[in-house]
Amino acid sequence: MQASTDNSVAPVIECDHASIGFDNRTFIEDLSFLVYPGDFVSIVGENGSGRSTLMKTILGILCPLRGTLSVNIRGGNRGIGFLPQMSDVSRDLPAKVRDVVLTGLLSRKGLWPFFTRKDKQKAADVIERLLLTDLANRPYRELSGGQQQRVMLARTLLSADEVLLLDEPVTGLDAASAAELYETLRSLNREDGLTILMVTHDVGSALANSTKVLMIEGGEAYFGAPEDFAQEGFTTSDFTPAE
Question: Residue of 22, 38, 137, 198 with fewest CB within 10 Å of its CB?
Fold first, then answer.
């Protein structure tokens, strides 16, 4: 399946016949896709399929073994806001919510690691956008898992110029919290125009929420609109999380 294109708008991510891997081990062969401003792309596949390696390549941590993968936004790869999987350490941060969110600006502060009034206002705006104002002075470690993930999303948004990359964002969340997070992501994509790439095992939600899906299986990738996958005969049972 081929990605739809819009010749009037430049892609923010362009992958051209790239082989994705590291240490001469190839996970995905001859991968080509285009991500345009405002796309919501879900990257799905089994454990070990190469999703994490592709994510590291998009972030500029790894280079394609062959072909090219370019990020065409202000700041390049550094302009991508990246939300990793939650860890036990990140769940126990001894700080207030507003202070955790502010740390999203640290990578931009250089040799002047102090927050200005403008920085604090920007953080307050993001906190309000994600409906966290009532929690701003609460200790982060006392929040629920869903609330903590929204705080981390707010933190990540401060470092995102145009593109947000998420790694399994609903892992460890209950169904209600996961649904709430998906609703927030849809709003950021559709109302704010944020381009989102989400690595996930949740194929059902990927097909329901995304404008494009990149499905990886056996070293090959299928890229297209969610409805294309139904026409091709893919179902949510084709990709089940490994035990």
Answer: 137
Pairing of strands 220-224, 212-217: antiparallel
pTM: 0.86
Give the integer Cα–Cα distance in Å for 18 and 57: 10
C-beta of residue 196 within 8 angstroms of C-beta of residue 40: yes
Residue 99: exposure state from Cβ atoms within 10 A (0-12, 13-18, ≥19): middle
CA angle centred on 34, ends 29 and 37, rounded to 5°? 150
CB 128 within 8 A of CB 110: no
CB 96 within 8 A of CB 148: no
pLDDT for 218 equals 84
Identity at 182, one-letter amino acid code: Y
Residue type, 31: L
State the pLDDT confidence band at 1, using cuts at 50, 70 and 90. very low
Q: Are 150 and 182 in contact (CB under 8 A)?
A: no
Spell out the domains of the chain, with CATH numbers in brackets.
9-73+166-174+197-232 (3.40.50.300)
Q: Which residues contact 41 (CB under 8 A, 6 or more apart)?
A: 35, 196, 197, 198, 210, 211, 212, 213, 214
d(CA 229, CA 109) in angstroms, rounded, equals: 43
Helix (H) or strand (E) segment spanning residue 14 = strand 13-22
Give the tokens for residue 197: 């790439």
Q: Using the predicted structure, report yes or no on whether residue 112 has a pLDDT greater than 70.
A: no
Average pLDDT over residues 213-239: 74
